[in-house]
Amino acid sequence: MRFCTTVFVTGLLYGATCWAQSSSSTSAASTQAINADTWTWNTWSIETGDNTGSYVTSSCGHAWKDFDDWEKRMGKIDTADAIANMGPYQQGTSNGFYLYRADMSLGPPNQAPAPMTAVSIYVLHPGTAPDFTTAIKKINDALSKQPDWPKTSGWLQLVNGGESPTFVLLNARQNWADFAPLQKSVPDVLNEVYGKEAADQTLKTIRDSTARLYTETALYRPDLSYVAGK
After folding, report:
1. Residue 19, in any domain of the structure
2. Same domain, 128 and 75
3. Of 28, 122, 147, 196, which has the highest C-beta tally within 10 A?
4. What pTM was estimated for this model as a whole?
5. Which residues of 41-74 are buried (b: 16+ CB within 10 A; e: fewer)?
């Protein structure tokens, strides 16, 4: 299993099996390059929604024990650097761990960052996660059979550090034009594959499981990202 720990500043949100850290001024590139970090940190700016103007920086693909090792090597140095260079510009921070759910995703866990990402955050009612994940897997089974359906979506599950159960859907986009609806909608595909009654029940399970749903757009910032070894 691969996890992420994520630091949010003025309302950030996700990782992808990663540790994330954000700032509204100082880039991860400068911080991590100074410290010769061996982890890659990708940064996104939030362009829509309540978190507009916030940043998310993620280092992905780490096991639990990796975070202990990183803290030993980088923790004190990175914290001091962040306080000095990012602290004056931050309004607030929070931290959380996320798990990349490959079993719920159409895309691989280590995709290269897309120029833009459509983000949907599902906060569920307590006890509904099993039904929710089963419904998502059923939808993915139908979508995976569609030759023209993008196979780039990824799901994250909050493990620790916020209201739970929470799941985050990340859909890669090349530009704003990519946000236009596809010729077939998800309900259209489900109706074709399972029939209307089963399709309606699957979508109802998701609606009944969801307490709140938030959407926003993340813009990839290569100028604020740090790639280890480069």
Report:
1. yes
2. no
3. 28
4. 0.85
5. bbbbbbbebebeebbbbbbbbbeeeebeebeeeb
CATH number for 104: 3.30.70.100
> Are 117 and 82 within one domain?
no
Instruction: Give residues with Cβ within 8 angstroms of 74, minimum separation 6.
Output: 35, 37
141 and 212 fall within a common domain? yes
β-strand 55-60 against 42-46: which pairing, if any?
A: antiparallel
Q: Which residues pair with 219 in a beta bridge?
A: 45, 116
Per the structure, the complete domain to which residue 207 belongs is given by 100-216
Inside any domain, residue 229: no
Q: What is the DSSP letter of 50?
A: T
Asked whether residue 230 is domain-assigned, the answer is no
Q: What is the pLDDT along the chain (230 residues), one digit of tens a residue?
A: 666 655 555 534 343 333 333 333 345 545 554 557 888 888 899 999 998 988 888 888 888 999 899 888 888 887 887 778 777 777 777 777 889 999 999 998 878 999 999 999 999 999 999 999 999 999 999 999 999 999 999 999 999 889 999 999 999 999 999 999 999 999 999 999 999 999 999 999 999 999 999 999 999 999 888 888 76
Provide the sign of the torsion angle of the four alpha carbons 48, 212, 153, 204, taken in this order: negative
